[in-house]
Amino acid sequence: MALRHLALTSRAVAAEPGRRAKIALLADCLRELGPTEAPAAVALLSGESQRLRTGIGPASLRDLPPPAAEPVERPLGVREAERELERIAEVHGAGAQAERRRLLTGLFARATGVEQAFLRAVLVGELRQGALDAVVADAVAHAAGVPAAAVRRALMFRGSARAVAEAALTGGVPALAAFRLEVGRAVRPMLAAAAPDVASALERTGPAALEWKLDGIRVQVHRDGQDVAVFTRSLDDITARVPEVAEAALALPLRSAVLDGEAIAFGADGRPRPFQETAARTASRRDPARLRAEVPLNAYFFDLLHRDGEDLVDRPGRERWAALADAVPPGLRVAHTETGDRDEALAFFRETLALGHEGVLVKDPAAGYGAGRRGAGWIKVKPRHTLDLVVLAAEWGSGRRRGYLSNLHLGARAAGEPGLGPWVMLGKTFKGLTDETLAWQTAELLARETGRDSWTVRVRPELVVEIAFDGVQRSPRYPAGLALRFARVVRYRPDKNAAEADTVAAVREIAAAEGL
Ligand SMILES: Nc1ncnc2c1ncn2[C@@H]1O[C@H](COP(=O)(O)OP(=O)(O)OP(=O)(O)O)[C@@H](O)[C@H]1O
What we know:
InterPro entries: ATP-dep_DNA_ligase, DNA_ligase_ATP-dep, DNA_ligase_ATP-dep_C, DNA_ligase_ATP-dep_cent, DNA_ligase_ATP-dep_CS, DNA_ligase_ATP-dep_N, DNA_ligase_N_sf, NA-bd_OB-fold. It contains 17 helices and 19 strands. The protein is an alpha+beta fold. Strands 11, 12, 13, 14, 15, 16 and 19 form a seven-stranded antiparallel β-sheet that branches. It has a five-stranded mixed β-sheet with strand order 1-10-9-2-8, with helices on one face. A five-stranded antiparallel β-sheet has the order 4-3-5-6-7. The structure holds adenosine-5'-triphosphate. Adenosine-5'-triphosphate is lined by residues 191-192, 211-214, 218, 233, 262, 302, 334, 361, 380, 388.
């Protein structure tokens, strides 16, 4: 009954509003599944389902066998289901489509209704909602009887939640402590919390460092002798696409290093080029030499996690910055100033904006480097409010936009809020779209189509779009009772996946700040 148990638990976790209760439910289930099945359950529930759904589009999920009648003679196990999905993901080459379909049909024929619903959710990535990742991590800690921080720390060094769950459940704290920073293996990046202005950021941190927030692409650079690898925010290896960044790291007087930074292109006027131009450098595999000539990148480093055999991850910010300043020349570092004075901080913020940068980061000098936003060791401050939302559907345009998908339905992550489903629509917009973006989004959205009527094409919730807006208003038409005022597209965020989109809780916070 193992898969059934997991499927029912996952349903109960989704319906449960309280975070603690969610963790307890899931931890009980993992304990009951035991050390062999539980890591597979974690792989299905967490981000690793992304990998499993490779090559499986919504079309292949249609016309599958009806649910198996209960009681089933040989019920599906969790490990068994995970293995089967892995097998499906590994099918490549000629006839792959048909073979995948055959395997999927076999799997579904053995699954009951509740199991089929769970497998579908895994396959379309519906379970993968970021917030759930954190709940899963805490549930693993609970089930294994180890501190949550030990699990999170291991996850930072090793992307695989499955491997970490296995270590926690079989070897406890010592097994988790064996996960360490390895030069050459990407670590999950530290992220920033947000504050509306520098004064409130400083209130939280006390005297802090302020740095430019460059609007480029996050780069994590690993150097081991003359070998170098560059990873994105989502841990993709882009070394071949950004040779300038690799060269910059190789020129440093170091034997081995792990550097965190941002790559960005500047125009002839010395101001940052639009984000899309920098992003195109890392998104495209085509002709890196020509792209490099057209849009040369500059690397700016802001953190040093490892230097010549020594790990700095747990050192406070001020020690890592000192090590960075020692190893990296000023031209390759972001501007950095340290102050506890509001007026000085505000002046730095204004100067940074005047140079064309996006905002500033306010960093706590005592904070170690930690994955995720927890602890708020880094706080970002930008001059205007934006949200990263997911496109749920789009309407066909008219007039000049005929033939293009134009008006976007925008959703925030419900992140487990009861009664809302995984995505909460907050409004629509067709504003801010250039002709080029219209054509691009039409193709991208059609490739993700899950159904349509005469006006609207519904899509898999995968594309993240950054939306600027003037405020939040009450609206009975939308499920959370809130809608964005004057929403407009700033840009697409190809460097983010849907699990990293903003939550409806963040929108409620903005509404509360506006007195709604
Ligand atoms: N000096 C800096 N220190 C840290 N991060 C920086 C710095 N300059 C630019 N950044 C970028 O800002 C991001 C920090 O903000 P956050 O963790 O919220 O990521 P994000 O959601 O990608 O942010 P945003 O959408 O605001 O760019 C980093 O991922 C990095 O790409």
